[in-house]
Amino acid sequence: MKTAQVPVSEVDENFGRPESISVVIAAYRALPDIDTQLSALAAQDFDGDFEVIVSDNLGDDELRAHLDDHPLRERLQLRWVDSADVAGTSHARNVGTRAARSAFIAYCDQDDAVYPGWLSAVADTAAGHGMVGGLLERETLNDPVVAQWRAIPPADELPVLAHFLPITFGANMGIWRSAFDEIGGWDDSYPTAGSDVEICWRAQLHGYSLGYNPEALVAYRYRTTARDMFGQASEYSVAEARLAKQYAAQGARGNHPVAVVVYAAWLLFRLPILPWNWPKARRGQWYWMAGAIAGRLKGSWVHRHLYV
C-alpha cells in the first residue's frame, strides 16, 4: 500500500484551530465495550470544550438508560441520539453529526480507546485542513498473537487506496461541519465497509485536503476469531471493488491482473496445514489475506469491475 500526503488547498486556508469539538460515536450493541472508550475520552487533555454524542443505530433502551446515568455524563456532555431508522454506521454518523453543536466533528468507534492527546492532535491538524486523520495502534487492546494477524499502516503518512487518494479510518477521523454539509455527509449506501474511504475521496475531490497527525492516536480493537477476520477482510475488499468502479474515471484502479498469481503463490506457501504455518499468528495472517483476496475476486464479480 503506497502512502502520500495532500497539501493544504485553497478552500482549507480559512480553517483555524477549533475551540470546541463534537465527538460522534456510531453505536450498535455497544455495551459493555463503550465504557472503555468513554473513559478514554474523559482523559483528554484538549484545552477547549467538547461533547460526546452516541448515535445509537439499534435504538437500545438499555444503552440510553446506561448513558443517562453514566458517571461521566457531565464531564463528557454526553448525549444519546436515536439513529435506528436506517441501518448502518454511515447513517448513524450522519445523525450524530447533524445533532452536533460544534463546528468541528471528530469520529471514534465504540470498542476502541483514544489516547489522552487525541483531541488535541486532531484540533491542531484541523487548522488548515477540511478533514483530519490519525494513527491506529494494535497492541493495547488485542492479545499479542491476535495483534499480529493484521498489519497497521505505517506511521509516517496516510495510506493510499486503489492507487488513488489518501484515506483515513472512521475510527479516527475529523471533519469540519461546513465541509460535511457541502459534500453531503456520509454515503448511506455504504452502510459499513468502504464508507470512510468514500467520504475521504469525495471530500478531496471537492477541494478539501486530508491532514494527518500521528499523535492523534487510537488503540484499535481487532476481531478475535479467524472466521471473523476473514469475513471482515472480505467485506472490506468487496467495498473497495465498488469504490474503484465508482471512482475509476477519476483514477482509482486495482493492481495489475498478474497480481492474482502472486496472491495464489503467497496463499499456497502460507497454507495453515503446512508445518511452518502452524503458529497461531501465521494462521491468522493467512485468514486475513485470504479474506482480502476472496473479497477482491467477489467484488470484481458482483460489481462487474476488475479489482485485483
Account of the protein in words:
The chain is an alpha/beta fold and 308 residues long. The chain has two domains: 217 residues, Spore Coat Polysaccharide Biosynthesis Protein SpsA, Chain A, CATH 3.90.550; 77 residues, no CATH class. Helix content is 37%, strand content 19%. It is built from ten helices and eleven strands. The strands form two sheets. The chain has an eight-stranded mixed β-sheet, sandwiched between helices. Helix 1 links the parallel strand 2 and strand 3. Helix 8 packs parallel to helix 10. The radius of gyration is 19 Å and the shape is globular. The two termini are 13 Å apart. The N terminus is likely disordered.
Defining key terms:
2 domains, Spore Coat Polysaccharide Biosynthesis Protein SpsA, Chain A, 37% helix, 308 residues, globular, alpha/beta, 19% strand
Concise description?
The protein is an alpha/beta fold.
CATH topology value of the largest domain: Spore Coat Polysaccharide Biosynthesis Protein SpsA, Chain A
Give the helix level as a range of percent.
25-40%
Task: Outline the low-pLDDT stretches.
Answer: 1-6
Q: Mind summarizing the main beta sheet?
A: 8 strands, mixed
CATH superfamily of the largest domain: Spore Coat Polysaccharide Biosynthesis Protein SpsA, Chain A
CATH architectural name of the largest domain: Alpha-Beta Complex
Distance between the termini: 13 Å
What structural class should be given to the helix and strand makeup?
alpha/beta
Rg measurement, Å: 19 Å
Helix tally equals 10
Average of pLDDT: 95
Strand order of the largest sheet: 4-3-2-5-10-7-11-6
Strand content: 15-25%
